[in-house]
Write a structure and sequence with these properties.
By secondary structure, this protein is α/β, with parallel strands linked by helices. It has a single domain, classed as Ribonuclease Z/Hydroxyacylglutathione hydrolase-like (Metallo-beta-lactamase, Chain A, 4-Layer Sandwich). Helices cover 18% and strands 27% of the residues. The protein contains 5 helices and 16 strands. A 6-stranded mixed beta sheet has the order 3-4-5-6-7-8, with no helix packed on it. A 5-stranded mixed beta sheet has the order 9-10-11-12-14, covered by helices on one side. It starts with 10 loop residues before the first strand and ends with a strand.
Length: 303
Amino acid sequence: MPAPRSASSRLTLVLSLCLALAGCRSTTVRVGAFDGGSSWYAGGATCGGRPAFRIREYRDGLFILRQPACTNYEKPFLYLLIGEARALLLDTGAGGIDVAAPIDSVLAAWRAAHGGTPRALIVAHSHGHGDHVAGDSQFRGRPGVTLVERDSASVRTFFGLAGSADRVTYDLGGRVLDVLAIPGHEPAGIAVHDRATGVLLTGDTFYPGRLYVRDTAAYASSIARLVAFTAALPTIVLLGTHIEQARTPYTDYAVGTQDQPDEDQLELSRAELVSLDSAVQAMRGRFTRTRLRRFTIWPQQGQ
C-alpha cells in the first residue's frame, strides 16, 4: 500500500468511472488525505474531562467520526456524507456518549457556509449490531430526521434493495451514492460507495481486524460482489468501522482492549479486498480462522 498522504498533499484526480448503473463517463473524484492510523488514536480507558468524538473532514462533505475508547472499547467509526438536499449519517455509535450534538454542530457549520442546506438528515447503519445503533434514540422522532431502523426489511425498503436488487443508487442531491447489500457478517449489512471521493464504506464486513462471519455463503457472495463492483472503479480507499489490528502484521488486539497505541491505519486497499476474496473462495464454504496480513477471517457459525 502506498504511504498515506499528508493533509497538505490533497489531490483532485480526474478519473474515468465505469459505473454499471450509470454507464461510463468522466467524473472528478476528489481525493482526501490520511495521516496514517496513529492519527486516529482513540485514547485509553480513562476519560479526561468530557469525552468527545474525534472528527475529521476527509474531503468536501465526507466527515469521519471516531468514538473515544473510554466510552466503549469497540471505538467504532461513524461516517457523515453531505449532499445538497440531504445528509446521510451511517451508524450512531456504541452508546455512552452524545452523538447527536457533534452531528448537529457539523451540520450547522455546513449549512451556515452553504445557504442553509441540506435541511434533511437520514440516519442509517452499516449493519444492525449494537455497537453501531446504540445512539439511535438520540435521533428518533426529531424534526427533519429520518431514522432507518436496523432490521433488514427496513434497510432494503428504504434504499430500494427489495426483491433481487443487491445494488442501487441513492442521491443526496449533487452527491450520488452506490448502496450494496453485503450480508454475511449481519443480515442487514450494506456498503456505501461515495462517487464524489471514491471512498467505499464497508462496515464490519471489511476492516483491519477480526472479520466475524456468521453466514459463510452470504459472506463469500458479498465479498465477491464488492470485488466485482470495484473492478471498474477508481476506488481510492476502503474504510470500515473498527481498527482491531496492530501495526505488526498478523497481530490483533485482544477483544476488550481499550488502549491501542500501536494500532494499524484505518484505510484498506482494493488489493487487500482481492486477497480476502481469494482466501474466502479457497475455503469453498468450509471457513476456518485464517490470519492474513491486516485482518483475520473469523467464522462464527451458529451465532
